[in-house]
Amino acid sequence: MKTIDKTIERPSFKLSLIALGIASFISSAHAEEDINLETVRVVGQAVQIDEALKEQRNSNSIESVVHADGIGQLPDDNAAEALERLPGVSVENDQGEGRFVTVRGLAPELNAVNINGTNVPSPESGTRAVALDVLPSELVQSLSVVKTLTPDMDANSLGGTINVESLSAFDHDGLFYTLSTEGSYDDNIDKTSPKGSGAVSNIFSIGDGVDNFGVAAALSWQKRKFGSDNVETGGKWEFTDQARLEELEQRDYEIERERLGLGVNFDYKADIYTNYYLRTLFSRFTDTETRNAAGMEFDSPQLPSESGTGATGYRELKDRKETQEIQSYVLGGEKIIGLWTIDGQIGYSRASEDTPGHIAGAKFEGGFDNVGFTDTSKPRLFAGSDYYDPSSFSLDKIEWEEQKTTDTEKNLKFDLARDFTIHNYASQVKFGGKLSRREKDNDTNAWEFKNFGSNDTGLGAFAGSNVDYSLNNYGPGISSSAIKNLLSKLNFDSNINTEETRINDYVMNEDINAAYVMNTLDLDNWTLIAGMRYEQTDFEAKGTGIRDDVFQEISSKNNYHHWLPGLHARYYIDDKTQVRAAWTNSVVRPTFEALAPGFSIESGDKASFGDPTLDPMTAKNFDLGIEHYMGRAGAISAYGFYKDISDFVYETDIAGSGAFQNFKEAKTFKNGDTAKVYGLELAYSQKLSWLPSPWDGLLVGANFTLSHSEADIEGQNTKRSIDLPGQSKRVGNFMLGWENEKVSMRLSANYKSSYLKEVAAVSDKHHDAYVDDQVFLDFSSSYFISKNAQISLEAKNLTDEHYYVYTGNKAYNNQYEEYGPSIKIGFTLTNF
């Protein structure tokens, strides 16, 4: 390969991008001195950053990376929270934990997740997004977010492709192991939780080879108990001359989440030209949730502090145990024959969500006078003593459900590359293809009980202890065991909810056939990559709908193909500075909720349905930026991006138009015309190693992304402009760290601005739901007792940040939730 004759050789056929917001920087004026004086670290924040920047710099794409340190530790508990530190990345939280990842302001379902090179399906029934909190950080060696796709990559992301790489034995020299134990405390429910994890790897000599076979395994287990307090209106506001509230609900959550993760990987290097690998990963996420709710439906919409009569008050219990599993197996290899490189892999992934029979709703009701609320953003219900007396409520209904969703992806990939020269310039042509077969199915069974015979149906017979609820008075909860005891006396066969059971069942098949060709050329100070990808999709959905109490079997097909050209360019200003530009094209299929074939239609009243014939979203993506690397583990970058999106999918109400002219409500999904997203991504990092001791251990990092989106929607004979749902206009991270050979500390802040969560009817923007801005402040530290043993302390959500969704205007509640801070103490023993 042709290289520039300079002190540092630039990598061939690699387009790097940068910039992680937490890095060490050594100014050029002191670089020589620092290299001579600095002790090489084997663990800690600087090692994580250094390894991440190496991967980013050598990448063919614009990419940001999080890497494990020398003892196999990522900087956060799960994969989602680790990614949150990267430029342009934010995380959607669930019950105070990071779950779904957004990239450059684009919603999680517009991003793809790969584990060890194979696509990961989603365990949840309605979405393509993968909740990355199912992946314990101990199983992960590195995480990356690829923001510009080369033609040899799946084209199924608009924001970014999240790549998860698990541990390989060749990540370490010889025997390596680490064992960790941890205890955490949740302030909201005053509970402690255990965690244990470990990883081991070693390299062996088999046959005639030397150190040619590696085995690595990792195991993680955690059982976490926590909770949250919530008050929500669901957007039930009437906006006329003044805002009046129709109903509100107070919720208390008690949650136990158990995570089990296991990975076993094998690597075999037959010779210097041939290697094979097997990557396996299993993750189980069990979520046990008990939710007590106390609500009030006012007889007519009320003003704050106004007292009303004839209201319906209720108490409700939901109690379920849900298990999500992800399995991933990848078998592959690579062989070099002269100027040819051949590689291929077979991948199999399966995700499932199993919710066995559970209380989906046990509701008690009663009538109340002199009730109302105060405060529109965090409503507080006021009522007489009768509302807190169990004898005021009687059992209205019990809903019992069970559900199983599976999502299976099988794929076969083959790549062939050849190196050659053009007028003495190094070049490489690469081509290949991929076959992907995906099947998603959902099976729901539902029962509804309303006739309880001679059984006592007053709340007093089912009341539990008083609920620990911090936002207001609450009173007694509902006993789950008492409800189940009643159900054991009832006839399930005569109480099946046929509609809910049938219309939520479906099977969807999605077959994708892809092929590509690309060429990479080193031309003096330029590296150029040009190519074309072709993807052809066959989609089929089968399900059941109900129209005016008559069931209908549905079978729908949709076929389409896309030609997706791409061009990447990198110009080396010098050995440390480079400019990157990329023009790429991508295609994202609609969510399974949008494509669902089931429907429910009541003529002249309400309808809800998906649309299996929706077009996929396509985007033309443009990126331009500059990055500068500064000594060991240091970088600074600035990138601009622009996305021109066609056929974006949104949820809307089409009542009052077409076949639904006389309907009150008709909720479905539609393709919009075009949407645009553009922004600026900045990242800076510095290790202050040139300062005198002890300040030479300081690490400073920051990144900030500004973005803007424009989209037009239509329905109900009107049009309006919106932001793309899930898109935060401002996302930022700041980190201040310090470390030496014994101690490592980090104070980090993560910020994201408000964003559109749900779109109401096209003619009713006042009921759009927005998530308010959030700032999370976390602290972590560790101390090495010896070379092989360390203790750690971590405090999360130090400022007790809440989650707030508002309706149209920040003054009007849709949902408010508090979690409280948590503290973790851990011990790690390592051999390396």
TrEMBL record:
GO cellular component, one term: cell outer membrane
Record's subcellular location: Cell outer membrane
Gene3D superfamilies linked to this entry: TonB-dependent receptor, beta-barrel domain (2.40.170.20), TonB-dependent receptor, plug domain (2.170.130.10)
Similarity comment: family membership: Belongs to the TonB-dependent receptor family.
Residues annotated as signal peptide: 1-31
Full protein name: Outer membrane receptor protein, mostly Fe transport
Ranges of residues in domain TonB-dependent receptor-like beta-barrel: 366-798
Membrane topology: Multi-pass membrane protein
Family matches, as CDD domains: ligand_gated_channel
Chief location bin: membrane
Family annotation (PANTHER family): PLUG DOMAIN-CONTAINING PROTEIN, TONB-DEPENDENT RECEPTOR-LIKE BETA-BARREL DOMAIN-CONTAINING PROTEIN
Pfam families registered for this protein in UniProt: Plug, TonB_dep_Rec_b-barrel
